[in-house]
């Protein structure tokens, strides 16, 4: 009985470990790295500053540092979707992506040191160079809407990968729709 | 001369070459004019590690101008072949030779070419080469035979460059014109596109995404020395060398939109030459350096245009179809090769510039990147076959197609004469 119980609990722990590892792995594969970074980046400066020398023990022990993600436009922008999808043969930034554009533009207007690369992509159909130019056109359309909402030219660089870096493999409309896109990348 | 006795290929005839050849030649259509030629197995070639005669036969066959006839018996360059006997086999020309290992490790490759119809020798050579250059020696013999019998320079000893994507690794490779014995010029974790040979064959220009954007580099083939010649804000792409090697035409988006520019070969003296508000890209120079062909969608769909390389008003060249891209121009300036979308298929076309006649050369649906051989007689291009990206050569009449290599490759570009 006893030995069985031990075994059971050991198995329980092993099972938990497997589940935990599985969850962690799943988390890694589906969560953007930027989102994982958010709490680390924001907490460090705000918890150190008020104490003015945490190492010397000057901060009161009851202090609680306030981290308000809603007041930090840059971090809010990091949580916004970073991909804008386009219709076939189109460069029009559709209304459904307006919140993304507005949020990113606000973050850029708030923090002028922030830089963004807009990477345009196409689906796999057609020539490599012509698709590179089409992806460039999409990226420039996104850049333009960001500048109209407060970002400056010098904060942005529109570039293109054409059809060279598809988000999804496949040769049907479902894959193509996911590949016609512009990605916003911090630089 | 030998062409007077012609061979009419049966329609849709498929010829499989012997096992040593790394590709298959397809002959289709009626009326292909071919010289029947016998290339005997070179004496002692088995001890050299290369099938010298097999390489020559495959080269000649791929050109579309020759048909290989079996050469039984043992022959070499010292033989005195009985011409009447070869005439009875319907052979117009005969090649025989030998491969002899020298004391210093090199191989002495000798051959002789006979005009069987006239019963005369047309010449021969002896070349001592490193073992690594045996294939090149074979290609040079094929060039010799081709030039003697057609009056035009052969392209078998030239090189090609192409891109291979293998998982997430991209390589820019340089190989013999038959796609064999490749060497890797560049290896990257990011895409490489649009390779272009310098007219002297010593450098390649290409677009690399290694810095997370399209930047144009030039690289010395022999040393690997490279530099970014266009790394402006936005995308830098589609490099093309002028025939004198001093100027590079390319596409930049540094002022917004994809537009054509010229620059010195080291990236100096940047000069914008189109101002369209549309996409202008894929420039190529004509052999005289005076004209640029390029792609523009200024008329609403991508079409091929030409303009003076000095600038000026472009003139539309392609009219049929709503998607015509990737122009390549033959050395004589008479033929434009390009990719045209017809229905959902991207197909290799040629346009006879004098008559305006456009002709589909293939019936495949994923053709890309046509590039002329320096003698203008063959086009190399990429397509998909059995789910893989493959390289093909094709004659200008579309009748002789050869599939090169068994690896997955794209964006082939044919290098100049000499190496």
Low-confidence stretches of chain A: 1-56
What gap, in angstroms, lies between the N and C termini of chain B? Answer: 30 Å
- What spatial order of strands do you see in the largest sheet of chain A? 1-4-2-3
Give the largest interface: A-B, 23 and 33 residues
CATH class of the domain at 68-187 in chain A: Alpha Beta
> What integer value in Å does the Rg of chain B equal?
22 Å
Mean pLDDT, all residues of chain B: 92
Number of strands of chain A: 4
Order of helices and strands of chain A: HHHEHEHEHE
Cα shape of chain A:
elongated
Could you characterize the architecture of this molecule?
The complex is a heterodimer of chains A (187) and B (419). Chain A is 50% helix and 12% strand. Chain A is α+β, with helices and mostly antiparallel strands. Chain A has a domain at 68-187: 2-Layer Sandwich (60s Ribosomal Protein L30, Chain: A), CATH 3.30.1330.60. A 4-stranded mixed sheet of chain A has the order 1-4-2-3. In chain A, strand 2, helix 5 and strand 3 (156-162) form a beta-alpha-beta unit. In chain A, helix 3 runs antiparallel to helix 4 (98-110) and helix 4 (98-110) crosses helix 5 (128-148). The longest helix of chain A has 29 residues, at 2-30. The N and C termini of chain A lie far apart (61 Å). Chain B has 2 domains: 2-150, 3-Layer(aba) Sandwich (Rossmann fold); 159-414, Neuraminidase, CATH 2.120.10.30. Chain B is built from 3 helices and 31 strands. In chain B, the strands form 7 sheets. Chain B has a 6-stranded antiparallel sheet, with no helix packed on it. A 5-stranded mixed sheet of chain B has the order 4-3-5-6-7, covered by helices on one side. In chain B, strand 8 and strand 9 form a beta hairpin. The two termini of chain B are 30 Å apart. At the A-B interface, helix 5 and strand 3 of A face loops of B.
């Amino acid at each position: 009985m006893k030995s069985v119980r031990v075994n059971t609990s050991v198995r329980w722990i092993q099972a938990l470990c497997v589940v935990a590892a599985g969850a962690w792995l799943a988390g890694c594969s589906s969560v953007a790295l930027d989102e994982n970074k958010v709490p680390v980046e924001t907490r460090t400066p705000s918890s150190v500053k008020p104490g003015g020398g945490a190492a010397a023990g000057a901060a009161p022990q009851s202090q609680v540092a306030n981290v308000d993600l809603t007041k930090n436009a840059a971090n809010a922008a990091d949580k916004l979707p970073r991909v804008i999808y386009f219709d076939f043969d189109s460069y029009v930034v559709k209304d459904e992506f307006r919140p993304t554009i507005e949020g990113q533009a606000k973050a850029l207007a708030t923090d002028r040191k922030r830089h963004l690369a807009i990477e345009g992509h196409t689906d796999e159909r057609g020539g490599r160079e012509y698709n590179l130019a089409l992806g460039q056109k999409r990226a420039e359309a996104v850049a333009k809407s960001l500048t109209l909402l407060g970002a400056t030219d010098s904060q942005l660089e529109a570039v293109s990968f054409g059809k060279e870096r598809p988000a999804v493999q496949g040769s049907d409309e479902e894959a193509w729709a996911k590949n016609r896109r512009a990605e916003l990348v911090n630089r | 001369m030998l062409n007077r006795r012609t061979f009419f290929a049966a329609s849709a005839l498929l010829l499989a070459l012997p096992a040593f050849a790394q590709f298959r030649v397809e002959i289709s259509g009626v009326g292909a004019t071919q010289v029947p030629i016998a290339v005997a197995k070179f004496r002692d070639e088995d001890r050299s590690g290369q099938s010298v005669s097999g390489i020559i036969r495959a080269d000649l066959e791929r050109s579309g101008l020759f048909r290989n006839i079996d050469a039984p018996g043992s022959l070499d360059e010292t033989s005195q072949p009985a011409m009447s006997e070869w005439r009875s086999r319907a052979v117009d020309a005969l090649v025989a030779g030998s491969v002899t290992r020298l004391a210093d490790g090199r191989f002495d490759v000798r051959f002789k070419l006979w005009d069987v119809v006239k019963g005369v020798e047309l010449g021969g050579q002896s070349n001592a080469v490193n073992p690594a250059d045996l294939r090149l020696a074979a290609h040079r013999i094929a060039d010799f035979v081709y030039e003697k019998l057609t009056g035009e320079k052969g392209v078998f000893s030239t090189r090609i460059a192409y891109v291979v994507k293998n998982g997430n690794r991209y390589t820019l490779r340089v190989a013999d014109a038959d796609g064999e014995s490749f060497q890797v010029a560049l290896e990257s974790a990011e895409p490489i596109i649009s390779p272009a040979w310098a007219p002297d064959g010593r450098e390649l220009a290409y677009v690399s995404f290694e810095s997370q954007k399209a930047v144009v580099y030039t690289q010395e083939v022999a040393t690997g020395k490279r530099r970014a010649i266009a790394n402006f804000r936005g995308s830098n792409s589609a490099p093309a060398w002028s025939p004198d090697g001093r100027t590079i035409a390319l596409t930049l988006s540094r002022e917004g939109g994809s537009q054509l520019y010229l620059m010195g070969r080291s990236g100096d003296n940047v000069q914008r030459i189109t101002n369209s508000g549309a996409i202008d890209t894929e420039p190529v120079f004509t052999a005289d350096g005076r004209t640029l062909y390029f792609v523009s969608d200024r008329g609403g769909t991508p079409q091929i245009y030409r303009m003076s390389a000095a600038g000026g008003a472009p003139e539309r060249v392609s009219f049929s179809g709503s998607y015509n891209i990737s122009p390549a121009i033959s050395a004589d300036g008479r033929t434009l090769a390009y990719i045209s979308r017809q229905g959902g298929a991207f197909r290799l076309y040629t346009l006879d510039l004098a008559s305006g006649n456009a002709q589909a050369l293939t019936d495949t649906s994923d053709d890309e990147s046509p590039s002329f051989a320096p003698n203008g007689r063959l086009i190399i291009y990429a397509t998909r076959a059995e789910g893989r990206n493959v390289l093909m050569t094709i004659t200008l009449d579309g009748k002789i197609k050869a599939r090169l290599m068994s690896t997955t490759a794209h964006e082939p570009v044919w290098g100049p004469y000499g190496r």
